[in-house]
């Protein structure tokens, strides 16, 4: 293998939280073949394996990882008409910028999301009215169970809100490449689905705008919430949204409405969005705020972002345990206030809430 290998290697610098202890061994692979070889070696020797892309969705324990951490640093951006193929290690936000420059719509509202392209199908990454499941055609992955590289079409990825078959079975697949089908709308964006984006652009939901305008507006909105990486801004030393928006059954929704009325008064209406199959999605950020956790909450080295209640941040000297203590406090506070248990979006390694 033509790879870089380090021992007792710090992992914190490879994560956007800048938290976590060292890995027994860190391998950086720059080709698909090297990725597969490293995975096979770990599987053959029974060595625990941690996959790292952009590190924007990882919470690693202070003790680190007793095994092989594999950093996927593959590169590849191939555009054929409206068909796009990205290597798993491609920087996502750079790839979005290149599709906008090429005049292709479909992922422009996903600008500024940190991390790598390979992580996008795992989480079914989405923001500002777009999700990658709408444009992904297939995922090329190494199947650790079958010990072969497979092509998985969109319909078999089991995409749902911030979820997929890859997230449901994290030990099985290693994403190598992701293929998308974008749209040539003569320089215009896809129809805007998010009211905040449309409002910022001075148009109505469903309208199209110049691609570059859509991307720039999303970047400004994200920056205002501390959701675009900036080494000098501790509000961005985070994993972006730490909790997913809860999806409630009709019964859970009724109980939630009762708790809202009891706590905040009968005239207060909680955010509610149809989520299909009789389900309703509400806002985790709203729940956190109304449970008493304001922007900037906390007096320790881990605090809620000063720009967005959904982001938990490392103010520079935090440990993973500091972060988890804050997360647990928020989860308990929201549960006590509204009867809803928030679920963390980042992947935890060696720890749990």
Automatic annotation (TrEMBL):
It holds the Pfam family MurB_C. It catalyses: UDP-N-acetyl-alpha-D-muramate + NADP(+) = UDP-N-acetyl-3-O-(1-carboxyvinyl)-alpha-D-glucosamine + NADPH + H(+). GO terms for biological process: cell division; cell wall organization; peptidoglycan biosynthetic process; regulation of cell shape. Residues 19-185 form the FAD-binding PCMH-type domain. Pathway: Cell wall biogenesis; peptidoglycan biosynthesis. One of its GO terms (molecular function) is UDP-N-acetylmuramate dehydrogenase activity. Its EC number is 1.3.1.98. One of its GO terms (cellular component) is cytosol. It is an enzyme of class 1 (oxidoreductase). Belongs to the MurB family. NCBIfam families: murB, PRK13903.1. Cell wall formation. This is UDP-N-acetylenolpyruvoylglucosamine reductase. It comes from Streptomyces jeddahensis. The lineage of its organism: Bacteria, Bacillati, Actinomycetota, Actinomycetes, Kitasatosporales. The gene is murB.
């Amino acid at each position: 293998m033509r790879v870089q290998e380090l021992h007792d290697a710090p992992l914190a610098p490879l994560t956007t939280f800048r938290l976590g202890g060292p890995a027994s061994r860190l391998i950086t692979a720059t080709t698909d073949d090297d990725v597969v070889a490293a995975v096979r070696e770990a599987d053959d020797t029974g060595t625990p394996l941690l996959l790292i892309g952009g590190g924007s969705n990882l919470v690693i324990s202070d003790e680190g990882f007793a095994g092989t951490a594999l950093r996927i640093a593959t590169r590849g951006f191939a555009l054929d008409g409206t068909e796009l193929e990205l290597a798993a290690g491609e920087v996502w936000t750079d790839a979005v910028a290149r599709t906008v420059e090429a005049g292709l719509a479909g992922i422009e509202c996903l600008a500024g999301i940190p991390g790598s392209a390979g992580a996008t199908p795992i989480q079914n990454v989405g923001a500002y009215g777009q999700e990658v499941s709408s444009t992904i055609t297939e995922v090329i992955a190494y199947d650790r169970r079958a010990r072969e590289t497979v092509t998985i079409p969109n319909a078999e990825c089991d995409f749902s809100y911030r979820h997929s078959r890859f997230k449901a079975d994290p030990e099985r697949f290693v994403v190598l490449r992701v293929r998308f089908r974008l749209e040539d709308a003569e320089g215009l964006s896809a129809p805007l689905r998010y009211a905040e984006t449309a409002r910022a652009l001075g148009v109505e939901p469903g309208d199209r705008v110049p691609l570059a305008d859509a991307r720039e507006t999303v970047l400004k909105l994200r920056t205002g919430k501390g959701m675009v990486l900036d080494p000098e801004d501790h509000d961005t030393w985070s994993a972006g949204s730490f909790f997913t928006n809860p999806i409630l059954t009709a019964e859970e929704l009724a109980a939630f409405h009762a708790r809202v009325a009891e706590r905040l008064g009968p005239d207060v209406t909680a955010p509610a969005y149809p989520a299909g199959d009789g389900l309703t999605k509400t806002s985790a950020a709203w729940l956190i705020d109304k449970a008493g956790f304001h922007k900037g909450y906390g007096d320790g080295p881990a605090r809620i972002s000063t720009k967005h209640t959904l982001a938990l941040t490392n103010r520079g000297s935090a440990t993973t345990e500091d972060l988890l203590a804050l997360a647990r406090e928020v989860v308990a506070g929201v549960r006590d206030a509204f009867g809803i248990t928030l679920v963390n979006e980042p992947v935890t390694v060696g720890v749990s809430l």
